[in-house]
Amino acid sequence: MEKHEPTRRAVLLWGGAAGLAVTFGVAQPARAVSGAAAVPAGVEVDDSADIPLQPGLIGYNMHITNRAYHFTDDAYRALIARLQPRWGRWSAGTANNVFDPRTGTMPEERRAQMFDKRNQYYLYDWERRVNAGKNDGYMDLVRYYDSLRETCAALTMVVNTFTGTPAEAADLARFCADNHILVDYWELQNEPYLFTGGASALPKFYNSATDYLNKVKPFHDAIRGVDPDAKTVIAYTPTGGNAWDDRIYQITAPWWDAIVWHTYEAGSRETGNWLAAAFRDRIGDDYLARSRLSPTPILQNELDVRVAGPLYNTQYNAVFNAEAVMRLTTAPKENTRMLTGAGGIPLWILDAAQDHTDKTLDALELGTTIDSGALDHQLYFKTVGVANVIVNEAVNNSAARWQTTVTGGATVAARDGAGSALDVPALFATGYRGGFGGNMKNYALMTNKSAEEHVIDFRVGGATLNTQVTAVYSASADPDAGNTADNPARISQQSVTYPDGSAVTIPPYSVVRLEWARSGSPAAPRTPRITSAEVTGATSVRLKWWNSPNATSYTIHYGTTPGVYTQTRTASSAAGTTVTGLAAGGTYHFAVTATGAGGNSGHSNEVGVTTQAPPTPTNAVAVGRRAGTVTVTWRSVPLATGYVVRYGTSTSALTQTLQAGNRMGADIDGLTAGTRYHFTVEAFNGAGSSAPSAAVSAMPVLNLPYTPVRLRLSTPDTAASAALTWDPSLVRTFRDYFEDGDAAGWTVASGTWSVTDHPDPARATKVYAATSATGLSETVNGDAAWASVSIDAQIAVTSFTANGTVSVLGRYTDSGNYYRFVYDHADQRFKLIRAVNGTFTTLAQIDLTDVGQPFYPVDVTNMRLVLEAVGDDLACYVNHLPVLTAQDSAHPTGAFALGANRQVASFDKVHVWTDNMTGTGGTYSLYRSTSPQSGYTRIASGLTSPQYTDTGITAGRTYYYRVSAVRDGVESLGNSNILTVVT
C-alpha cells in the first residue's frame, strides 16, 4: 500500500504559472495534476449529541423579472422541485419589483419614483417583462403560492415600502388572509441600506437606519392591524459592524420580529472572510450578541457567494456557494432561528439554453401575443445550481446536525477579513441527522477547495462507518469549468457507492453528499399546510395542501365547529381533493394530516369555509391614468376565487367586462382619454357571484403629470430653513418599432438609411438600418426644445468592422453639437463624447471588458444603449447596466439621433422619455409633515421651478417632505420619495 504524508499543502496556481494569486480574499485555484497520489484525510462525525437544525432551512428567491419564462412553466417547476426548497420569497419590494401588489402591474409613474434605478423602470423594460409571455400569471400571488405547495415551501413576503403605502400593505395582508395564504415573515423592503446617501445633499429614501425604521413602522402597524400574529422583518447589512446596524442595535424596544441579512460575492474581503470562519462568527458575535430580540430569527434570504472575476458560474464558485450554506447550518443556534435562500432563481441557479426574449419582444412589436409556456426554453442548472441540489437534500431533510471534524488533508492559501494571508483546510465537512418527515437517511456534506483528490476514512461515532455509503457529488479537475447554454451538463450530479466508509474518494474541486441508511423506525411525514380552499359548488369545497415528502396518503378532517372534526375523507395526493355532500350555506372547518410509514403527522392549519357565494367587494376605487387606462382596485373578500369588473360610460349601461382573476385590482386599457367611465366589481366562486359593488368613476387623463423624483436638499439644512430641490419625471413621448415599413419623421443627416427586414432571418420584424460600411451615418428625430431626455435604442450588428462605431445621440442641435454615447470597436470602449462646433471631448469612457463582468457580460452585436440627460447630469447605460456618468452644461436642449460610423447597423425599439412638465404650464406642490406616512400639509403650490426653501421650521425637530406635480388642475397620483430633514 502506498504511503502518504499526513498532510499536504496545495499551492494554488492560476493560468499554469507557479505561485499564488489571491484576489480580494479568495485564492485562485490550482489545476489538478494528472496521476497525482490522493491525499489521505479523516472525517469524524460525532453522532452522540444532536445540535438542533431548523427543519427546511433552504429556499429560493423568485427572481425572474428579465426572463421569457416564469414560475408557471412546467419545466421550471420540475427543476425547482429537484432543489427541494422549503422557503419561497415573493419579491414585491425589491429594487426591480416595485409593482402594485393589488394589480400585479407596475404603472409608469410608480417606476418613475425609483430615482436610483430609473433606467430599469422605463416603459420598455416593463414591456419586456410583461409582454415576454408573462401576462398569464406573472406576479400572480395565488399561483405563486400554489407553486410553493409542491415542495412544502413556506412564504416570506417582501413589502414595497418605496412606492407602496401602508394601506396597500394592509390590503395585501387581508388578501392573504382571505385566500388562506400563510405568510411566515413580512420583510419590510429589500436592501434598504442601498438607498441612502452619505451627504445631506444626496437623494435618499432613507437617511439612516433610524430613518428607515421610522418610515417602515407604519407598514408594520398596517399589517398587524389585519393580522395581529404577523411577523415582520427589518434589514441588517451584509457585513455588520457599521453605522446602519449600530443604530438598529441601539433601539431598546424593537417592534420587529426578525432580522434579514444577505451574503454576496466571496470576492470581497468583507464577505469573503468566511473561509476563516468569520462568516459564522459574524452571526454569533455581531447579529446575535448585539440584537435585542430574544430569540433572534435570522433570515439569510439572499445567499449568492459569487466569486468575482472569470470564476463566476464555475465549479470553484459552486464549491464556495455550497460551503457557505453548510457553514450557515453551523451558525449558533442557541438564540436564533436560521432561515436561508439559496440564491436568486433563475439568475444564478437556473438558465435557459434557448433564450426566447427576442421572439417575445418581436411579438410585442407585431402586436401579437405568444404563449411562453409553449416554448421550449431548454432550462438547465447553472453550476451553482447543481451543487445546491446536492446540498439541499441533506439540509432540508434533517432536523439536527452533528459535530464533524476533519483531520489531515491538504490546505489552501487564502486571506482573512483584514487581508492577511493564512492557510485553511481544503476540506470542510458537517454531518446531519436525517429522518425529518419520514426520511430514512443520514448525511454528511463535504467540500474540497483544492486540486488534490482526497481519500478519507469516514468515521461515525468513533468507528469507520461499516455500512454502505453513497457519495453524490459534482466535481471538476478544471475549476473554472461551468455549465453554459452550449454545454449545459458539463458539470452534472454523479454518484458512486462504497461498501463502507474506509476509503471514500473526494474528488478535486467538489461538493459531496455522503448518505447512508438510518436505523430504527421512520418518523411521521411532515405536517402539511392547507394552501387553498375554494368553494366549487353550493355543496362542495376543493382543498389543496403541501405535498409532504414520504407521505402515502392524506386525511381531511372537518366539522362545523372550529377544532372539532366529526368527519374525514382520505386522499392519495396533495394535488387536492374535492369534499362533496356539504350543506349549502354551511360553515365548515378543515384540517389535513399526512400518513406515511412512520404514522400520522400533526394537524395542518385550520381553514374555515362557507358554502355560498362570496360577499360584495368593498372600498372600490377607480383612478384615471395616461394613455386610455384606468386602474380599479378593491378590498378582497373571503371565499372569492375571482373578480369581474363591469364598466361603461353610463352607470345604467355597464356593458363591458374584464375578468380580473383573483387579485385586488386591474388596469383597464383601451379607454378614451377625457371620457368618464363607471365601474363596479363582483366577486365569484363556484356557488355564484356577489352583488356588484357601489359604482365608482374615473377618466383617463391624456397628460397626467407624473410624480417628481430625487427630492433632496440642495444645500445643508439649517436650524431655520431647508433648501429643497427635485427633478421632474421622464415620460415616454416617442417610440418607433418601424413595423409600418417607413421612417416617417426621421431626417437623415448623413449616410444612407432604410427600413428593412431584421438581419436575422429568424426574426420577422423590421429595423431601421444604416446601410453604408463607409463614412458617417446619422438620422435625427425629436424636438430641439427637449431638455431632460432619455434615449433608448436596441442595436444589432451582424459583424463589426475593425474601426466601426454605433451610437445614440442626445441634445442634438446639428452635426457638430450634441452628446454622443458610442461603442467604438477600434479600441473596444464605450465613450461619452461632447461635440461643440465640431470639437470633440471625451467626458468619460470604459473598456468593454469592464462592463457587466462577470455576471452580465455584454454582447456588442445585440445590445441596448441608453443616453440620459437631466439638467447637467449625463448618464449612459448598456442594457440595464449604468456604465458612464458626467456633468456638463454645454447643451441644455436638443433633439436625438442614431448613428453608425464605418459600420452597417440595425436600430430597433427606439424609445425616448422627456420631462413630462416641459411646455405644459405645469407646477409643483410641496408637502410637509412631522410623521413619515401621514399628516402632510401643503406648504407651497404653484411652484414653476423644481426648488423651494422652507423657512417655516424650527430647530431640534424632524420634518418629512414630499412633492407632487400639477397640470390643468390634475395632481400626480403618487408622491416623490419622502425626504427626512433633521434640524
From TrEMBL:
Q: Which SMART domains match?
A: FN3
> What superkingdom heads the lineage?
Bacteria
Q: Which positions fall inside the Fibronectin type-III domain? A: 524-613, 614-704
Keyword set includes Membrane: no
Q: Which InterPro entries does the UniProt record give?
A: FN3_dom, FN3_sf, GH, Glyco_hydro_b, Ig-like_fold, Striated_Muscle_Regulatory, TAT_signal
Coiled coil spans? none
Q: Which UniProt keywords apply?
A: Carbohydrate metabolism, Glycosidase, Hydrolase, Polysaccharide degradation, Repeat
GO annotation, biological process: polysaccharide catabolic process
**Keyword Repeat attributed:** yes
Q: Please give the Pfam families that the UniProt record associates with this protein.
A: fn3
GO MF terms here are: hydrolase activity, acting on glycosyl bonds
Q: What is this protein called?
A: Fibronectin type III domain-containing protein
